[in-house]
Amino acid sequence: MADKPVPLTLEGREKLQKELDFLISVKRPEVAEAIHSAKEEGDISENSAYDAAKEQQAFVEGRIMQIEQMLKNAEIIETPAWTGIVALGSKVKVVEKGSKDEEEYQIVGPAEADPAKGRISNESPVGRALMGKKKGDPIMVETPAGKRQLKLIEVK
């Protein structure tokens, strides 16, 4: 069975690679040392430091595997040629009906989504509604907070 492609920007891929390098070269040895130290304390059956270190080891190893899988299946989002149509990698400005406040987003894959930084997933309700639209298009979005009516005012 083929693995699901993971759309990433070059910046997102580099960020994941740096996290992977840090986990392998820094965190993994730290956790191994913590386990070794806890074992030297004697009986590990009731050793909370050992249990905590083993839990941290499981987290670190799980995250390493997750990042390696994402990088293996990464599909780099090329900066889309300007077509005026929203696609992965596009930067958009929208305004909600009844508001003058513009919202700016970049459409990215789920692995890079960070709404606080204006990076929304193409699989999120707003991202999915924006895909394939062009400047001036009205967009009706069903979000967990209710229906939103947006107007696409710019596509870059």
Provide an overview of this structure.
The relative contact order is 0.15. β3 and β4 (102-108) form a beta hairpin. Helix content is 40%, strand content 24%. The chain is elongated and about 70 Å long. It contains three helices and seven strands, in the order βααββββαββ. With 156 residues, it is an alpha/beta fold. A five-stranded mixed sheet has the order 5-4-3-7-6. The chain has helices at 10-40, 48-72, 125-130; strands spanning 6-8, 74-76, 91-96, 102-108, 119-121, 138-143, 146-155. The mean pLDDT is 90. It folds into two domains: 6-76, Helix Hairpins (Orthogonal Bundle), CATH 1.10.287.180; 91-155, Roll (Chitinase A, domain 3), CATH 3.10.50.30.
- What's the CATH architecture of the largest domain? Orthogonal Bundle
Mean pLDDT: 90
CATH topology of the largest domain: Helix Hairpins
Give the structural class: alpha/beta
Give the name of the CATH superfamily of the largest domain: Transcription elongation factor, GreA/GreB, N-terminal domain
Report the sheet-strand fraction: 15-25%
Which CATH class of the largest domain applies here? Mainly Alpha
> How many strands, which pairing sense, and closed or not: the largest β-sheet?
5 strands, mixed
What topology does this entry show?
Layout: E1 6-8, H1 10-40, H2 48-72, E2 74-76, E3 91-96, E4 102-108, E5 119-121, H3 125-130, E6 138-143, E7 146-155
Parallel strand pairs: 1-2, 4-5
Antiparallel strand pairs: 3-4, 3-7, 6-7
Helix pairs in contact: 1-2
